[in-house]
Design a protein that fits this description.
231 residues; mainly alpha; Rhopdopsin 7-helix transmembrane proteins; 7 helices; globular
């Protein structure tokens, strides 16, 4: 049963990442969030394939999984997430050069930090991941407040709950293993993958609500300058 839940939670995250990542790019021209969502989906696809093939730690997919993990935990679902959401909170529209630079930073961080996995020094990047998560949480609390102020109360609560759940996952990831979990940490990954998928879904519909509010109040144009086409 746990193996089935693991597969379903991973498939959920993969679907949300690809589907809403593409919508963020196509409908809103938000390449920061859109590409990060797609990277999350690719990461989930690699992790699922590796698990179905037996979970051999010598398989290159194992090391690829930790690269994606380090990428998203250090820069992706922190700096990139905040910059992407600032499009609807502060009307921040980064240039193509900024987009490329921040993803380049994520790649460098992912390549550097993934090497510590399984070594005694893993506590160093693990602590760093928790710190950047905490900093991102401060902005996400503000993001929920913005939703509350435009009377999107349900989304504000959903966003706050999702952020709290993601923070719980970040803390339990390296420092507080779930009691009674198996050696593969299946229960943890079921909760983590489901939560990460929920993040991508809730933040997308919250982003859409703030975008629509900005358009309705004249704070933002309904036409996106950098989008390829409108869905």
């Amino acid at each position: 049963m746990k193996a089935l839940l693991f597969m379903l939670s991973d498939l959920w995250m993969i679907f949300v990442g690809f589907f809403y990542g593409w919508k963020l790019i196509r409908q809103y021209g938000n390449y920061l969030l859109g590409l990060e969502w797609i990277i999350i989906a690719i990461s989930g696809s690699n992790f699922l394939a590796w698990s179905l093939l037996g979970g051999d730690t010598s398989n290159p997919m194992y090391f690829i999984a930790y690269f994606f993990d380090a990428f998203s935990r250090s820069v992706g679902v922190s700096l990139i997430l905040v910059m992407g959401l600032m499009r609807v909170t502060h009307r921040y529209k980064p240039t193509v050069a900024v987009d490329i630079s921040v993803f380049g930073l994520g790649i460098v961080a992912g390549l550097y930090l993934q090497q510590f996995h399984g070594h005694g020094f893993h506590v160093v990047p693990a602590t760093f991941f928790v710190i950047v998560n905490a900093l991102s949480t401060v902005f996400l609390a503000y993001f929920s407040l913005r939703l509350w102020k435009i009377r999107a109360r349900g989304l504000a609560i959903a966003s706050a709950f999702t952020t709290a759940a993601a923070t719980f996952v970040a803390l339990t990831y390296d420092f507080f293993p779930l009691p009674g979990d198996d050696k593969d940490r299946t229960t943890f990954y079921v909760l983590a993958l489901a939560t990460w998928g929920l993040q991508a879904f809730v933040y997308f519909i919250s982003y859409r609500a703030l975008h629509n509010h900005n358009v309705a109040t004249g704070a933002e144009s309904a036409t996106n300058e950098r989008s390829v086409a409108q869905a």
